[in-house]
Amino acid sequence: MNSPSGDLRGDWRKEWPRLDATALAQRIRAGAIDPVEACQEALARAQNAGKACNAFLDLVPEQALLLAQERRQKLARGQTHGALFGVPIALKANLCWQAARTSCASRALEHWRPPYDATVVARLLDAGAVPIGLTNMDEFAMGSSGENSAFGPTLHPGDQARAPGGSSSGSAAAVAAGIVPLALGSDTGGSVRQPGALCGLAALKPTWGLVSRFGLVAFASSLDVIGPMARSVRDLELALEVIAGADPMDATCLDLPAPRRQGEFPWKGARLGVIGQQRGVASPATEQAVQAALERARAAGAEVIAIDMPEFAHALAPYYVISSAEAASNLARYDGLRYGLCSPATKSTSGVDATRGAAFGPEVRRRMLIGSFALSAGYQDQWYGKALRARANISQAFARSFGEVDFLVSPTSPTTAFALGEMRADPLAMYKADLLTLPASLAGLPAVSIPCGLERFDGHAALPIGLHITGPSGKDQGVLALARAFESLLQDCTGGRPANGQQERT
User: Fold this and answer.
1) Each residue's pLDDT expressed in tens, for the chain with a length of 506 residues
2) Residue 396, SS3 per DSSP
């Protein structure tokens, strides 16, 4: 480990909102920050800033402090193993952790405590992390704003009149509000990347199958991916090393080791693609920020190449047919007969109807109806089968594009954070918020969002703009290396790096 420059024993509480997980873990291992005090700081902020934006559904201070005390004892014995040793983190409320209620922000599972830990949670605990609670989200991960939670919307930490994005809204808010430096979310069509962009974070959707889904409550199994959200790209790399890798508990998990961080990205000769069909989707301010980032990449030695991909513009319909069909199948288990909310009615067909009517919010019911119709007799090939063929065409189009370029670059979200309630009455407008992230999800490709600029408004706080990078399947390290290089190029556009972001290395 390289020796960090500067005084590690400074007023770390003032630095806390900018400290990334890598720097915090190093300071804890060096004895400059006590893991119990770090946990107490995160919990205090969760009680204040967290409550203000409704970021958490289930805080577990006793369990978190117990874990932090264990880390303190290990530190005293010189046993500081683990990449995230002593680092407070947050988990999305669709991840199983025995210490908390995995409610998925739904009345259906309001009081359900899982009997086991998700693989990613177990790996984080083994790496020394200290989860402090489970975060708010759109119910069963169905939403793009954080407003579909049964327990109230998550509010944007920078402007509480706006939405932080979804469905991993609480995880994004917990990091952006300076509560924890790292959080896990799940991404089905953009649910890590879109709130990451709206909240000014680095956020990663790994290659589908690279991270075990064992212990993730399913939304759409062929699309769901667990991914980290953080203050720096190097934290994404660190988190991926911890949570990725083969898992015998998940038959769909790739039999591959966790990827390791690459060296510095070579700008010279890099080929960055821009899909022509994405033009006009994003707002002028967003387009301008992304183009400015690409100009800096070109000045650094990269080649920017226009790519024609007509299939890109047709991802919305197949995504919502496929994801809704899989949701209808996955959510059929919530019948009130085995676990979760149970209607006081007799356990019969009418009782199941009553339970499901009370358990699910309007967005979940809407998608279950769409999915059930798409799978119904006489319509399955017309809708679900056609959507699968469209998905295959999109995957093939990406494969062709990666024969011409190394990576694809676009805006992450069409707009910056929008006002709460602005799109709730128009589901289609809300669905279009994921237009730029859906294609990579359908193809199962790795993609990352990083801040690339700010949109400024008179009388209001500036709102972050996200840059989206997509790479070939399995090239997660390359995507992250490019994101790290962009992060360095764009630091003056986004408010700078985390505290000591480049000086402290592990």
Assistant:
1) 333 334 455 689 999 999 999 999 999 999 999 999 999 999 999 999 999 999 999 999 999 999 999 999 999 999 998 999 999 999 999 999 999 999 999 999 999 999 999 999 999 999 999 999 999 999 999 999 999 999 999 999 999 999 999 999 999 999 999 999 999 999 999 999 999 999 999 999 999 999 999 999 999 999 999 999 999 999 999 999 999 999 999 999 999 999 999 999 999 999 999 999 998 999 999 999 999 999 999 999 999 999 999 999 999 999 999 999 999 999 998 887 666 766 665 455 556 666 777 889 999 999 999 999 999 988 899 999 999 999 999 999 999 999 999 999 999 999 999 999 999 888 888 999 999 999 999 999 999 999 999 998 877 779 999 999 999 999 999 999 999 999 999 998 887 656 444 434 33
2) helix
The domain limits of the chain are 12-264
CA angle 178-184-187, nearest 5°? 120
Question: Quick check: 166 and 146 in contact, CB under 8 A?
Answer: yes
Query: Is 5 designated active site?
Result: no
**Domain 12-264 belongs to what topology?**
Amidase signature (AS) enzymes (3.90.1300)
Q: Which two tokens stand for residue 452?
A: 């690339």
**Residue 68, phi then psi, degrees to nearest 5:** -65, -40
**Residue 3: active-site member:** no
Neighbours of 243 (CB within 10 A): 24
Burial class (CB in 10 A: 0-12, 13-18, 19+), 68: buried
In the residue annotation, 191 being an active-site residue is answered as: yes
Q: Which two tokens stand for residue 24?
A: 């915090």
Q: Which of 103, 167, 168, 186 is catalytic?
A: 167
Cα gap 196→193, rounded to integer Å: 5
Catalytic residue among 92, 212, 401, 449: 92
Query: What is the spatial distance between Cα 145 and Cα 166, in angstroms, rounded to a whole number?
Result: 4
For 207-230, b where at least 16 C-beta lie within 10 A, e where not — what string? bbbbbbbbbbbbbbebbbbbbbbb
Yes or no: say if 93 and 58 are a contact pair by the CB < 8 Å rule.
Answer: yes
Given 106, 144, 191, 473, the catalytic residue: 191
Sequence-ordered strand ranges (E) for 179-231? 182-187, 202-205, 225-230
